Known about the structure:
The chain is 30% helix and 25% strand. By secondary structure, it is an alpha/beta fold. The radius of gyration is 33 Å and the shape is elongated.
Amino acid sequence: MGRKDDQLDCGWHRYWLGIATILLAILVGTRNRAQAQNNAAPAPQTAKRTASTAAAPAGRASQPAAQASTRASGNSSARTAQQQPSADTQPNSAYTITTVVNEVNLIFTVTDKHGRFIRNLTEDDFSLLDNHMAPAEVYSFTQQTNLPLRVGLMIDTSSSIRSRFQFEQNAAIEFLLSVLRPQVDKAFVMGFDVTPDITQGYTNNGDLLAAGIRKLSPGGGTALYDATYTVCRDQMLPLARAGALRKTIILLSDGEDDQSHATLDDAVKMCQRASTTIYTISTNDSPSRDRGDDVLDAMAVATGGRAFNPLRMENVAEAFQGIQEELRSQYSLVYKPADFKADGAFRPIYLTAYDRSYKVSAEKGYFAPNAPN
């Protein structure tokens, strides 16, 4: 009986010894594989982001948190983002990632057949084509009345407008004092005959703007196209880097041009590049329309503005009031164009209301930015 018990004990020892050997082999193999994986893995990344491009929009009617809604070269803007390189690349230098943000902020107004502004419309009330295609995505649709306003007051000081000049000065001063919001909006004053003359740069100080208007005096020929081209290039186009703004020119002129090197088309295209809306007030005091009125109409329509043709001096003040009301009755539609290319090409915009009795005033297109080098 004792010998038999010894044999059983010996068998159990061999059994457990085998189990222990198998477990030990498994543990050793696992450790070796883990060590091999650690040896083959790359060094941990230590890149630290210092700036980044805006996040992609989350939904149809939401805007990115870091969205700037700027419209360089029309409506789209190029943004740059700088990052520190990872520890295993260029340890003591930074590099720049440059991207083009294909985002369009279209500002427009809607009126009925009597010229009354229509408010409280929704996105579903409109049809939009950008470069003959529906937008890829709509980020937001709002009745936009709070964007900062940048106004350029351009007054024709040629001898042809001498008879109503003082009255127009007074109406322009009253307009700027009424429309500009302190600490939010800014304006500048420019007179032009053969050459443009900025008598007051951007400011929200009403006294300075009034003084700038008072400095103007009539006399000389007219270079309307040169003045419009110059003011959009030098005063409005640089504002593309300043964030979301409404850029507007108020142009008082008879529309005649006898001195410009630029053409009407040159002037309109520069304003479109600068995303600037032109409102015109005709100073033609003849009883009938002439070629100058047609020029002013063309400038306003192409940039999404409106042309006013006062028949009497008192109607000039009414025209300014109409512009003020329109600036406070605008919609904003922010969207992503379909098949967008950063090639500097002109992209036409077609925005219409499904209700055909409504008239939509919007810019006729924009120039896409060029791809960064």
